[in-house]
Amino acid sequence: MSERSRLRLAAMAALMTAAALGLVAAAPATPSVTIDNFTFNPNPIVVAPGEQVVWTNGDDVPHTVRAEDGSFRSKPMDTGDSYAFTFTKPGIYTYFCSIHPKMVGKVIVRAP
Ligand SMILES: [Cu+2]
After folding, report:
1. What is residue 29's predicted lDDT score, i.e. its pLDDT?
2. HSE (side-chain half, CA atoms, 13 Å) at 53
3. What residue spans define the domains of the chain?
4. 93 contact partners, CB below 8 Å, separation of at least 6
5. Whole-model pTM?
6. Per-residue pLDDT tens over the stretch 36-65
7. How close is the Cα of 53 to the center of ligand 1, in Å?
8. What is the pLDDT of residues 60-82, one digit of tens each?
9. Contact 105, 43 (CB under 8 A)
10. CA distance 48 to 27
11. Does pLDDT of 19 surpass 90?
């Protein structure tokens, strides 16, 4: 292999690496829980410490999210409303809807 084609290959490899890194950087989205048909989805949701979880109500009745340990608590969310909370400490957080207490969900916070 000539020096020239070796250089060309090295340049291509560098470009491909950069492209791959770009994809990785663009991928992370805010972890989201949708409330539909009186159900939290996904349940449980797993996030890393420092990540924010956004709940959005897709039902046509109001819902809330309230932590069993009191660490977070939303106002009633109407259709399309959202509530966000950032989890800093690892652990398992059980939450429920204070209007419909049978609706229960879990957030698992752990280092990836
Ligand atoms: Cu509810």
Report:
1. 80
2. 28
3. 1-28, 32-109
4. 67, 68, 69, 71, 72, 87, 106, 107, 108, 109
5. 0.75
6. 999 999 999 999 999 999 999 999 999 999
7. 18
8. 999 999 999 999 999 999 999 99
9. yes
10. 15
11. no
Helix (H) or strand (E) run with residue 20 in it: helix 3-26
DSSP strand E in 1-112: where? 32-36, 39-41, 45-47, 52-57, 66-67, 82-86, 91-96, 104-109
Task: List residues bridging with 52 in a β-sheet.
Answer: 86
**Residues around the ion ligand 1 (C-beta < 5 A):** 63, 97, 99-100
| pLDDT value for 1 | 56
Which superfamily does CATH assign the domain made up of 32-109 to? Cupredoxins -  blue copper proteins (2.60.40.420)
CA 57 to CA 35: how far, in whole Å?
Answer: 5
Q: Quick: pLDDT tens for 81-97.
A: 999 999 999 999 999 99
Ligand 1 centroid from CA 57, angstroms: 9
Q: How far is the CA of 16 from the centre of ligand 1 (A)?
A: 48
| CA 40 to ligand 1 centroid distance, Å | 10
